[in-house]
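Entry 12.
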Amino acid sequence: MIRRNILKKSLAAILASAMAIPAMAADLTMNVGFGAPEESLYGRFGKIFQTKVAEISGGDIEVKLRCCNQISSEDEAFKAMQLGTVDGFFITANNVSPHWPLMDVTVLPYIFQNSDHLARVLDGDVGQMMKDKLQADTSVHLLAFGPALYRDFYNSVRPINTMADMEGLKIRVPKNEVMIATFEAFGANPVPLAWSETPTALQTGTVDGGDNGTSFIRDMKFFEFQPNLVILEHFVAFAPLFASDNFMKKLNDEQRAQITQAAEEAGAEFATQVANETQEVRDWLVAEGGMAMTTPDKTDFVEAAKKVQAAVAEERGAEFVELVAAIQAAAE
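Predicted 3D structure (tokens):
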């Protein structure tokens, strides 16, 4: 009887111990950062990527999302990936240009004729060439371009009905030479500011306005102090998902393929989700956000943009010119 009780207690102890063992953790963790709120476009893209990685890797790789500049600022993240101190990050394309100047081909004003042209570039041979070239030049991996949306312009001073109305406005721009040159060509006074400084500068009136992907105007609540929304569609905004070579080297061939597949599938799925959102958000900014929206004739803006395109291409050299030509050829 005593032996039976001892045996029962031993079995119970073994069962209790087994139940206390936690579920097996993922073999690898990828920390992916972004500078915007968790509910932003970056966060939504990240959650799809997180789910895809878990599914495709069978739980062997875990993605942890770090919003709001927790692991780096957007302006510093690319360098951090080159150093291997950050695994992955969503970075707006124009903030990649200081580290890889060829990315500026996507920043040129009015370089993409429409959404179909853009898709042919990013999803086709030109997009793959850019991924390969960026990795060769910087060691950073561009996993997926993700969805692309127009940047909408806004300001606190006046409605914009013609390019002449831009005259003298102090406009926040990222620290990107093409974007600075574009707003100068439009007649404004561009003020280069890091993204981390931008909300305060807009709210305090240090600058009169700026431009962002439409959803960011709502996500960051800029409509609360920027009453004028202007539909110029001058820049396309997209935020590729990047990964450090340091992280990618931790993976075996199968895992690298899984991460790449997850990123591409996440980008395609999210692009489908947001395809019709721009107009919906614009309508919300007017109806709920109280902004006054204008849609100026773009003729003067496009002519000014062509001069910027030509000047930048001439300054950057043959490799840049060839890439611009490849993008233009994809429109045909």
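Annotation: The mean pLDDT is 91. The chain has two domains: 25-148+238-276, 150-236+279-329.
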